[in-house]
Amino acid sequence: MEDLDGRPTTGLQRKIVDHFEGKVVRKDLTQLVKGNAVVPSYVLEYLLGQYCPTDDEDLIRRGVEKVRDIVNRHYVHRDESELVKSEIRQKGTHKIIDRVSVSLNEKRDVYLATFSNLGISGVEIAEETVTQHPKLLTGGVWCIVDMEYLHAEDSARSPWVIDTIKPIQLAGFDLDEYTSLRSNFDLEEWIDLVVQSIGLNPESFGRRTKLLHLVRLIPFCERNYNFIELGPKGTGKSHIFSEFSPHGILISGGDVTKAKLFVNNNTGDIGLVGYWDVVGFDEFAGKGKRVQRDLVDIMKNYMANRSFSRGRDTMTAEASLAFIGNTDRSVPYMLKHSNLFEALPDTYYDPAFIDRLHFYLPGWEIDKVRSEMFADGYGFIVDYLAEGLHTLRQEDYSLPAQKRFEFDSSMTKRDQDGTLKTLSGLLKILYPGGDCPPDVLRDLTEFAMEGRVRVKRHLRRIDETFEPVDFRFTDRRTGEDISVETLEHDQHRMLVRAYHRDEDEEQEDGDANGAGSDGDVLTEEAKSNWEPVPDLESGRHVVVKENQTGVSYKRLFADYLRGAQRIEIIDPYIRIYYQVQNVLEFCDMLLRELPDGEEVEVSLLTGADTENQDEQEEHLENLKDSLRGSPIGFDYEITWDSLHARSIKTDTGWKISLDRGLDIFQAKNENPFDLGRINQEARRCKPFEVTYLQDEDVSFQVEPE
Any idea which of 192-196, 327-331, 599-603 has the lowest mean pLDDT? Predict the structure, then answer.
């Protein structure tokens, strides 16, 4: 089977189409039909789902043309509104696609519609339509409308008439079918399907980054979820909240009032939280922004209790709140000098507000959106996925974790709620049937807790009256104790210590998890000579997490290689270009560490590339040639025998076990001027582990020339 461009579909793409026929669309088609129309993706994919519910090449081509024609003929561009109005007048009727909002005219006791792009208002709309679609009353809904023009002598009466109106939303959703079909996919396949569904290419991201993108969906499936994401510009923070779902609305962070958000006490009208699943605040950060103090006070009560006041009455709502904005400083700067909430407006820079946040998404871990990151495979019509998440909002999927895990007693109820609500949302996204395996449940619980750790650690910097918290949980069945820390804390522990100079360093070490002590990754600067470093610990184990930076071959290996005259690398997968380049960078590190007059022999044992052995040998020979005449004598051996364990051995008795070999970095950025191309410490890592063992009887497998 081939797609529209003649490209063969992958096994996963074929599987998606087979199981979800009529509910998926090829994601690159959205850009094909969008053109310059400023219309949400769910509107376009709604139309594509009507006309391109297949993977048949001819049908897709015809469907794309049909949708493109519909958008060109019926979508109302603001600068063409007068032309459209004239066409309706001349023809008497015309179908349009526009955003429609409705208000009640109390004097006439009628509902009146406003068309955003068409630029008309005061159009009467049937009460039963408003009753059926109450979101028309707040913010507006994209609709397909048959408009008529009937001139009347009564000048007070609008000549515009709504013949038919159809909000662009899925008519129904079968949860049982959805959960049943989910069982046909393993976890990685399902993650990739959901990532593709939100318009991203899963091949561009590691596992952790995929999960970070999916956390943005939690407000859509979890009631009263308080989410914040701060990070650099251009990472797609607002996309989900503006384009993904008809159940969410995105507003400017500074363009909101008590009446708009909660309730208008003069009219009694309920605000946005009463009608939408998610209210997103765009461009939320910025010290100079002015925000009403009483708005923040009402918001804090709502975030904690789901309630707000209307006069003497107390009302409740279920809308989740998502706060997204840009950070002004780098993460290392904030860790050393301030906190991760530094960019918030002064009015929101409030411990009580911050304490009510369930998850802080580290936006700095997400790359700036590039063209190669956009999906071109099959994913759910976003409205279908959005309806699935909307349907699951009433459920609590955290109960299995509450039964299996015991949280540390120092964690407050808000700490536990933040973790459990995030976990519940992740499980709804990944396991809508509720059948999560125990090992995955543990990993997701740890991931969910990390977002709350980020909130609480930096809340204590703002208000020291908050008690210290030991973020850990215990598996009741296995007795395993899991401690959780944020990636940036592990990565920049010395900067964190610089901020907490008065705290007990031993206590700080005890709180750490993952990468271990400072010396695990943040080693001391290498000595200026090639003498062995005394008192290095045998058995030391280093764990580096996905997306961690600040790691290099020098920091990992240099101290353990000092004094060696011979080094052997055993790695079965030094085959293709970038893998051989890793060996080159290892040798470059040695060259930089070696003092004048010293030499070292480096040998490589690797497995044969059965399909491209000629290319493999060419790369390795080129590397060998490049090192000729240098203080590094390089040789290699290609074996057809099975190799599994990866290691670095020295004639000084050190064996460094590597679960990934030298392949510890994620793919380099496509930007030719990316710092990571020349600086390893600027690159993001794959997850890996390293163990250092000293054995005087280390044996070598490659005979030197």
Answer: 327-331
**Residue 436: band (very low, low, confident or very high) from pLDDT cuts 50, 70, 90:** very high
Name the CA radius of gyration of the chain, rounded.
29
CATH number, domain containing residue 465: 3.40.50
Token pair belonging to 364: 């700095």
Domain containing 38 equals 1-75
Q: Computed from CA positions of residues 73, 79, 85, 90, in that sequence, does the dihedral angle turn out positive or negative?
A: negative
Alpha-helical segments (H) within 340-412: 351-355, 382-391, 399-404
Report the distance separating Cα 229 and Cα 223, nearest Å.
Answer: 18
CATH number of the domain that residue 534 is part of: 3.30.870.30
Q: CB-hemisphere CA count at 13 Å for 124?
A: 12
Q: pLDDT (tens digit, 9 = 90+) per residue, 670-702?
A: 888 999 999 999 999 999 999 999 986 778 887
Q: Is residue 392 part of a domain?
A: yes
How does strand 472-475 pair with strand 566-570?
unpaired
State how far the Cα of 258 lies from the Cα of 267, in Å rounded to an integer. 13
Query: What's the pLDDT at 512?
Result: 44
690 by DSSP, 3-state: which? strand
Same-domain pairing of 387 and 350: yes
**Looking at the predicted structure, is the pLDDT value of residue 517 above 50?**
no
Of all helices (H) and strands (E), which one includes residue 22?
Answer: none
Q: What is the pTM of this model?
A: 0.80
Query: Hey, which bits of 527-685 come out as E strands?
Result: 540-544, 566-570, 600-607, 632-639, 646-650, 654-658
Query: Would 702 be classed as within a structural domain?
Result: no
Model confidence at 171, pLDDT cuts 50, 70, 90, reads: low
Tell me what the pLDDT averaged over the chain comes to: 88
DSSP 274: G
Boundary residue ending a domain (152, 167, 182):
167
* Pair of tokens at residue 23: 């509910």
